[in-house]
């Protein structure tokens, strides 16, 4: 997995590319913890190029949401591919995450 | 009937070999992208459990993954020589419809397996754990 981060109008956009699984979830975990340390707590995770996620990846997403919420930030997702969206639905995560179809829609929430 | 099998070590980096195995045979056997995704997920969740919790020692162990396709019925067998454990004896997490504050982190992997596959069963034969799963594909 590759993570590209972009700072736009005070929002950190994390573009996840490839697969988020048991072999690499710690990269995303470290990235989120670093952003919290740096007081960057407005985060948009763009999943346009995320092709696969397992429960390890979902755990990190949930951890990110909880940690960012606890410091009154925002942790929003956008652009989930169909297979990924289905996994979020099976997990019951669609009701606890803010998920938007496009990056433009998501950015309006900050 | 078409069959394929792979033997991996109890090392999490072996997940890459599983992915290649599923993608290659999924392509050959005409699986949809969604089915390749789902079967990869099922195997990752079950194999990860075995690697992290199945063995009491630090020795190298083999884990067998066997796939059979008959008509549109996919059968998966996962076999390991770890301690006896039936992953399907664990209840589905009860907090799937709870709010964020109430959600615990974890417990999702086996839930995915149950949702994706049509049948899931466990048997202990000799010193082997055998997970048998099936799914209608295509």
Descriptive notes:
By secondary structure, chain A is an alpha/beta fold. Chain A has a 5-stranded mixed sheet with strand order 1-2-3-4-5, with helices on both faces. In chain A, helix 1 packs parallel to helix 2. The relative contact order of chain A is 0.19. Chain B has a 5-stranded antiparallel sheet with strand order 1-2-3-5-4, with helices on one face. Chain B has one domain: Heat Shock Protein 90, CATH 3.30.565. Classes of the chains: A alpha/beta (110), B alpha+beta (138). The interface between A and B is medium-sized, with 23 and 27 residues.
SSE arrangement of chain B, N to C: EHHEEHEE
Mean pLDDT of chain A: 96
- Rg of chain A, rounded, reads 13 Å
Report strand % of chain A: 25-35%
Oligomer: heterodimer
Number of helices of chain B: 3
Largest interface: A-B, 23 and 27 residues
Backbone shape of chain A: globular
Give the strand order, joined by hyphens, for the main sheet of chain A.
1-2-3-4-5
* CATH architecture heading of chain B: 2-Layer Sandwich
Separation, N- and C-terminal Cα atoms of chain A: 26 Å
Task: Write out key terms for the chains shown.
heterodimer, A: 110 residues, alpha/beta, five-stranded mixed sheet, 4 helices, 5 strands, 40% helix, 34% strand, B: 138 residues, alpha+beta, Heat Shock Protein 90, five-stranded antiparallel sheet, 3 helices, 31% helix
Please give the structural blueprint.
The complex is a heterodimer of chains A (110) and B (138).
Chain A: E1 2-8, E2 11-20, H1 25-37, E3 42-53, H2 55-70, E4 74-78, H3 82-91, E5 98-100, H4 103-107
Parallel strand pairs in A: 2-3, 3-4, 4-5
Antiparallel strand pairs in A: 1-2
Helix pairs in contact in A: 1-2
Chain B: E1 2-9, H1 15-28, H2 33-53, E2 62-70, E3 73-80, H3 109-116, E4 119-125, E5 128-136
Antiparallel strand pairs in B: 1-2, 2-3, 3-5, 4-5
Helix pairs in contact in B: 1-2, 2-3
């Amino acid at each position: 997995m590759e993570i590209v981060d972009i700072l736009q109008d005070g929002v950190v956009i994390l573009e996840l590319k490839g697969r988020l699984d048991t072999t690499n979830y710690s990269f995303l975990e470290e990235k989120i913890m670093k952003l919290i340390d740096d007081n960057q707590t407005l985060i948009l995770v763009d999943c346009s190029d995320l092709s696969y996620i397992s429960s390890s990846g979902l755990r990190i997403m949930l951890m990110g949401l909880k940690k960012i919420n606890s410091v009154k930030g925002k942790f929003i997702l956008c652009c989930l591919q169909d297979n990924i969206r289905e996994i979020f639905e099976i997990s019951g995560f669609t009701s606890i995450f803010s998920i938007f179809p496009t990056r433009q829609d998501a950015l309006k929430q900050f | 009937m078409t069959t394929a099998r792979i033997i991996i070590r109890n090392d999490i980096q072996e997940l890459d070999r599983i992915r290649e195995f599923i993608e290659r045979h999924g392509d050959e056997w005409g699986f949809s992208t969604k089915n390749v995704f789902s079967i990869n997920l099922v195997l990752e969740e079950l194999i990860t459990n075995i690697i992290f919790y199945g063995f009491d020692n630090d020795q190298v162990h083999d884990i067998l993954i066997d796939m059979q396709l008959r008509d549109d019925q996919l059968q998966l067998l996962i076999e390991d020589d770890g301690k006896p454990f039936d992953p399907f004896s664990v209840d589905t997490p009860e907090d799937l419809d709870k709010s964020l504050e109430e959600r615990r982190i974890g417990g999702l992997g086996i839930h995915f397996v149950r949702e994706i596959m049509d049948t899931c069963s466990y048997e202990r034969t000799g010193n082997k754990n055998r997970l048998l799963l099936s799914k209608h594909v295509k």
